[in-house]
């Protein structure tokens, strides 16, 4: 039940574009959802993509632009004249229009705006451009339906007819007073069943309605809408005047970005790299973490230098360096990940950090014991030097516990410092655990052998 | 604009519960959203939590149960009698009811169902219990509004009044034929503006409406709803008969789980561990990865054994083991993460795996060069043995490239094998890269020194 893009389909489109086979292309395209057309454009050359736009109706073309990945849209828009872009922007909801304009250079932006035909729309969009893109104001759209509480149902429906023209999807009607202050919400369902003569003030729901301020952070908006299962939320300014609404589809995108960001931080990638990003951008966003790791490795080597003699006498010590570092790293990352997700889902707000650490300590002891015993046994059967077995066994035990504790504390500290705790699950924890682990390991070896 | 739970609030509630201060509790609770009440329950003792339910109205109580985390709900429900649970279930939408019943033991489930008063509701719920919980059937609810295409608007609104009773949120109306086969969708907005005499068949939208089959996988449902910005999607059976609908809030939860799962796999945690999970469950879900890492460490040690002599002669070799393993691991995980996200967002379907690997190769060469040179320089200035610098420099260079390639290939292979590629970003890649890296490093050392 979902359009499946195939290689042959793309090839058909491409040849049709070459031959300017209007009929074929229109037939293929006209019923497709913009998201699907965007997918096609993505797999065409830039010029082909631009060419395809000539065959789309205004609405389709505009929506397709919105659905494209930013990097492709950017390249593609360079092939559009300001006039052409303005035509698209005129078609878009104010929030999409603002996002699109926000990606253009200042100068180009002004050119496009000056070419927009719908002046009222243009001024709405300009208003939205003022807001920080990470704020509710940056997410909201100016298209929504509002009525006065003093209206009758009949009058309300007439109002609705007027306003609903430009509002693509009406989920609920916002009720305001004379000075546009948000009073409450009215569902279409209730309106549909109400007597034409009854007053809105008798119908709408006013107690604890959910709304956000224009300066609320987009992640808080997402939290609220998710928490209360909302499909749209009204946005008010500092005077509680209704200025916009945010719909769930935009919030779904925010959640998506959030999840991807955490995942990337956990994998040691600084800023969003699509698989399609250039080699250089790709490298740039990955190098920082690698260099941190490199630095960690250098520090480790400096630590090991102090034990040069011991290694020379007993090279077996060196054999287990990877085991120590790997195990410490793995345990640490796990601990951090659990804390990060706990923080995200607000699982332990005031539930006591201490309790959390205590539990993690127990887990550490358990895992440490199992690993320590296993590794001791392995040594016992493969290596005549029993002290080595004891050394590595005890070391693993302690390293695991330290890693668990550190992996738990670190994200909590970051969180206190208002730094994204997901950073903790990145290479940083692994690196630190390498250093901690090796120090412990060789200290113990030093004690047991000398 | 969002209820903020405070420690003192919890304490007030607790003492009020002790004193059976009905007035106070009612006053605190009655306007709260179930999600907020669930939050309160979470921070109360089990018995206190159960006690609080006595003060909630039926609707609140039922919804609060739904909002609770599964593990807490499970414990709490043990304090409820089958009769009490049945009363809650009667209040719930069919999908929530089915989910709740699905968590009970077979025997308890039957007891509860037998105690349900709304028999029609009960049979709907029983139907839903038949579906796999990962399928659209497992997500859908039986509450939706459907009308015949032959109806007039007037008749339709009357129908609506009847049906809308039990349908909490009406987003759009589904149009079916005499045998309930889905024909199309009609928005409330259009209905609101239509003449009472006009026919539904003239109003509803029929071309490429989005729907899913009962057996579609929930992740595909999520993809479709996200892709097409839907807030609700109809579900049809194998005969295309309309049997239910899935609303965006349920899909948002699916997306959330998905993201968390990937993140956990990336951090080496097998199945979902909330921070609140028991020490044992916690350990159980983490141990597998740790043991894989342990095994990897053992293998590394066996590889290193072959170079015992070299390490004895030149212990400096050992100093850089952590550097080699850490760098290889970090690069590998990055490469995998990028591929995993690329796969998730379907970025390179037929865009050529080869192209992808080539690019990754270039990135690897770039990062490898930078790291290799840096580490060579570090050695050059801190260590008289120039060969050591060359050895480690070249090794890092090669290790990074191998890690990048392997990290890219591995998730692609998993994906081909229909295994979740996110597994690749877990400790597995790091472990493998440790082994590969060390082999390269010591082989090169062996060649250069002998």
TrEMBL record, chains A, B:
PROSITE patterns registered for this protein in UniProt: CBS
Keywords: CBS domain, Cell membrane, Magnesium, Membrane, Metal-binding, Transmembrane, Transmembrane helix, Transport
Major subcellular location class: membrane
Boundaries of every CBS domain copy: 140-202, 205-261
Superkingdom, taxonomy of origin: Bacteria
Membrane topology qualifier: Multi-pass membrane protein
Gene Ontology CC annotations of this record: plasma membrane
Transmembrane segments: 287-304, 316-340, 361-381, 387-414, 426-449
Molecular function in Gene Ontology: magnesium ion transmembrane transporter activity; metal ion binding
Cellular localisation: Cell membrane; Membrane
InterPro entries: CBS_dom (IPR000644), CBS_dom_sf (IPR046342), Mg_transptr_MgtE_intracell_dom (IPR006668), MgtE_N_sf (IPR038076), MgtE_transporter (IPR006669), SLC41_membr_dom (IPR006667), SLC41_membr_dom_sf (IPR036739)
CDD domains: CBS_pair_Mg_transporter
SMART domains: CBS, MgtE_N
Family indicated by similarity: Belongs to the SLC41A transporter family.
Subunit comment: Homodimer.
PANTHER family per UniProt: MAGNESIUM TRANSPORTER MGTE
Described function: Acts as a magnesium transporter.
Protein name per UniProt: Magnesium transporter MgtE
